[in-house]
Structures are given as C-alpha cells and as structure tokens.
Amino acid sequence: MAIIEINNISKRYRNADTNAVEDVSFSLEKGEILALVGESGSGKTTLLRLIAGLEHPDSGIIQLGGEVIVSGRKSLPANKRKTGMVFQDYALFPHLTIFENVAFGLKGLNKKEVEQRVHDTINLTGLKEDVKKYPHQLSGGQQQRVALARALAPRPELLLMDEPFSNLDTILRDQVREEVRQIIKAMGITAILVTHDTKDAFSTADKIAVMLNGKLLQIDTPDALYNDP
Ligand code: ADP
Ligand code: ADP
C-alpha cells in the first residue's frame, strides 16, 4: 500500500499567471526516499509545502497513510497531519535547549514518555552529549541533526526536507547525507527531500522526481534516470 498518494494537485499563487504546481501525481511506498529535483522556481518547495499543509492547493487529492488529507479546497490543518518537516535554515528555537527543541512537537504524552521519546530520537541522531546546549552552541551539521530529530520525534508517517544539506560545506555534506540516509532507513520512514544538487539526489534517494514549470516530468529510480538522462 502506498504511504503517500498524490493525485492531480495544482496550485496557483494569488496574482500569479501560471500554476506553481501543475497537475502533479505520484505515490510512494513505505520506506522509500524520494528526491524532488528541478531548476529554481520549478515548484519543488511549493509541492512540499502543499503536502505539509503549509500551502493549500486549488485542486487535487492527497492521501497519507490511507487517510485523505487534501481533497480539492478541503484540507486537514498542518498540525493534524502525520508529517515532519526539516527546513533549509533548520528553524530551531534559539531560546530552547536541544532537549526542548526535540520535545517541542510531542503531544499527548506524559513527562516520562516525552523523556523516553526524546532520548531515543537523540541517541539515534548522535546528539547525546548536547541535550542541555542551545542551538547556537552547535555546528551546522549538529543543528541539522537536531532539526531532523525534532521532525522524527513525533514518529511521522512522512518526513519532508527542504534543501536539508545546502547550508553545509562539501565535506560535512557527504557525511551528513550518509548519516541522514541511515537514520531514515533505520526508522523505515518514508521521506521526500527537495534538492537542486544532483549528488544529494543520486546518493540519498531511491527515486528521483524531476520538476519543470510546476509539472512533474519524470519519476524513476536513480539507475533508470542515469541511463536515460
Ligand atoms: P522551487 O522550490 O523549485 O524553487 P517554488 O515552489 O519556490 O520553486 O516556486 C514555484 C513558483 O512559484 C515560482 O515561480 C515562484 O516564484 C512562485 N512562488 C513561490 N512562492 C510564492 C509565493 N509565496 N507567492 C507567490 N509566488 C510564489
Ligand atoms: P526556494 O528556491 O528555496 O523555494 P526562494 O528563494 O524561491 O526559495 O523563496 C523564498 C521565499 O520566498 C519562500 O517563502 C517563497 O514562498 C517566497 N517566494 C518565492 N517566490 C515568490 C514570489 N514570486 N512572490 C512571493 N513570494 C515568493
């Protein structure tokens, strides 16, 4: 069964004369990592935000884990969706500790369960020594891991990442990319990452979707795309 299924989603921003996302459809199975690539302005971020509920489409249907979360103009609020989001600039809360940042999205759990969940997630992301620190005391790579831990702690069905590696230098980028892939695979989580970097796409993803002018041109495995560029 598909974890996420998107059917004919379109979105036009107010005052725009073309659709930012135009009739996009695709689905992903549980555990698959999809890289969304395409030139700047092709609609990648908009598509991610539509899935997260940070933007609303004009038409189309989105199902997540068998539940309809978008149907035309009716859509479930972002905080009710089982998605986790990692932003390009990490968007950590500067006045909260690493522990508090990771605990932030956890609802309906008692204090002990929150502690357990945060520690489990933090161990997985290798941040054990840093729980009492504040974001500014960490390197870019470490902040990236905190952002990932915060997105994963509520155990979302779908992880969404917008240019997650673009603020890292080249060497760190190779390392963090591999770590992120391993963490996602270890959790068996389904993920979509937006990137303009083909190396990110080819080394992290199981499938690559190419966007142009709001349309999804092609979606395939890295091997198939490499042999048919
Ligand atoms: P990408 O992530 O591929 O760079 P975007 O989804 O950011 O593409 O943008 C797709 C198109 O929508 C672009 O033409 C962009 O200028 C436009 N766009 C993006 N965000 C907004 C917005 N908030 N208001 C109006 N137009 C927007
Ligand atoms: P990205 O390429 O990573 O999507 P951009 O630099 O295109 O980022 O956009 C940064 C911000 O500006 C986003 O919040 C986007 O929604 C907004 N934006 C982009 N294009 C437009 C536009 N034409 N009109 C209004 N807001 C826009």
UniProtKB/TrEMBL annotation:
Gene Ontology biological process: quaternary ammonium group transport
Superkingdom of the organism of origin: Bacteria
Domain spans labelled ABC transporter: 4-229
GO molecular function, one term: ATP hydrolysis activity
A single cellular component GO annotation: membrane
Record keywords, A-Z: ATP-binding, Cell membrane, Ion transport, Iron, Iron transport, Membrane, Nucleotide-binding, Transport
Protein name, per record: ABC transporter domain-containing protein
Stretch of the intact protein here: 3 to 231 of 370
